[in-house]
Amino acid sequence: VDIVDVVIIGGGVTGAAVAWKLASSGIRVAVLEAQRVGRGSTAASTALLMQEPDEDFGALRERYGAAITQRIWQRSRRARDDFIHTLKALRVSCDLVLRDSLYYTIDDHARLRRELTMRRDGGVGATWLDAAALEKVANIERGVAIRTSGNAQADPYKVCIGLLDAAERRGAAIFEHTRVTRIDTSPQRVIVHTAKGRIRAEQVVIATGY
Fold it and tell me: For site-directed labelling of 51, which of 14, 99, 110, 156 has its Cα 20 to 30 A away?
């Protein structure tokens, strides 16, 4: 039985980022991947590093209120900035490029204008593109858009490998072709079973994507 502090199940970009963060803090980490690292939903991702949550500012404000929604967006922007900074600091070669984002509509101009107003009221920097400007920027006809700066794109597989390399340099153990068959838990420990053996840990992180 091998003993670590944390077992991470899943060797995609989420598992890799968690492994690096923990290992760089001196925590003993093992990453278990059933296939090959970075080859699952990570390799099939959009490759976009976005500050925008999946929900509109307006939809979030209706659900949580203005103050909490503003905090959600602030945290999202901070996460984007921290992640980009980490990739640069670790010198991860991943074709990282800063990009603007366009949130556009062809017909519901009024709703998008309200969304822009709410974003600005919440401290989110954004600009309005009318039909002529949108066609010039993106070759999209008849629509209007909100343009937001500060996003990025990167090769997700290279990001994953770079973070795992950084985690391994800090002592993390990476195991490919190691499928987890069972997890036993108790208040004192976690036992993770695989076909190749068992690992005992204090915590387990499930990072298996879709």
Answer: 110
Nearest to 52 by CA among 140, 119, 134: 119
What's the pLDDT tens digit per position in 144-181?
999 999 899 999 999 999 999 999 999 999 999 999 99
The phi and psi torsions of 135 (rounded to 5 degrees) equal -65, -40
Q: Write out the H or E segment, with its range, that includes residue 186.
A: none
Residues 15-67: pLDDT tens digits?
999 999 999 999 999 999 999 999 999 999 989 999 999 899 999 999 999 99
CA angle 185, 189, 192 (to 5 degrees): 60
Tokens read off for 135: 């066609």
User: Which residues share a beta bridge with 182?
Assistant: 193
